[in-house]
Amino acid sequence: MLLFVGAIGAIALILYLFSEEREFLARIPAIIQVFSSVIVLLAGAFTKTMLAERASVLDNHSSFLNLLKPLNGSGLAGLHRGIAPDKLLEIRGRSELSSGPPKQWWQLVEESLEIYTAVDGREGWFTLRPVTEILDEETLVWAGYHASFYQAIPGILTALGLLATFIAILQGLAGVSYNPLDSAHPVTGIDTLINGLSGKFVSSIVALLASIVFTLIEKKIGEQSILQSYRGLLQRCRQVVPYLPQSRILMELRAALAKQENS
């Protein structure tokens, strides 16, 4: 957060200094001004879209957790017993009333659920696969949050800034000419190129600053918060919908056979 505030402050300071230097602003070519405005608008639009996707994914995570919320975690005992049949009916009823991704995610869990009767006769529902395989990161995070696209945004913004700079320099060079017949002033237009050269780099500076700010927002506010929410969701699912490994079944069968032999 401190880095983000610092980047915003740096941009504000540079804009303030530019505004105080009217002579400098007058040397900024029109194409640089247009590209700089487009870069800022694009950065704002991409940030708005990214934050909207982040909010949508977090809302879906919260809605899915609400399906399991009435079931309090019962520690190791709950992991050993599984979901009671009546509690599973409650979750199924709430999932029928839900919609969108949370309902689809529960259906994925439902497909892996199987009832298991322990040696003591107690029945419980377990998943036959680890929850990380059922509710994988691709399904719960990246399907709704296009991180790979947002990671390319800083490069796009920087490329636009450099493109504007090169176009402006090319325009300035196009006005430079050499006339060997004019011994007094053989080169013309060089003064215009040099006087306006500093203003041609404004778009690159704006693009770099916009890229830095966008990267900070995307990493700290966007991606990191979503992954943290996803890890919390997995932890909750492990408590409510425990995994039944085959090793446990084999151990209980061996224990039951040993008990029969001893009796």
Detailed description of the structure:
With 263 residues, this protein is mostly helical. The relative contact order is 0.17. A hairpin with a 5-residue loop joins strand 1 and strand 2. It is built from twelve helices and four strands. Strands 1-2 form a two-stranded antiparallel ribbon. It has one domain. About 2% of the residues have low confidence.
Structure summary:
The chain has 263 residues and is mainly alpha-helical. The protein has one domain. The chain has twelve helices and four strands, in the order ααααααββαααββααα.
Mean pLDDT: 80
Taking pLDDT < 50 over at least 5 consecutive residues as the criterion, the unreliable ranges are 73-77
Count of discrete domains: 1
Oligomer: single chain
Number of helices: 12
Rounded radius of gyration (Å): 31 Å
Could you list some keywords that capture this structure?
mainly alpha; 263 residues
Write the layout of secondary structure elements.
Layout: H1 2-20, H2 22-26, H3 30-68, H4 75-81, H5 85-97, H6 101-111, E1 113-117, E2 123-127, H7 131-134, H8 137-142, H9 147-174, E3 177-178, E4 187-188, H10 190-195, H11 202-240, H12 246-262
Antiparallel strand pairs: 1-2, 3-4
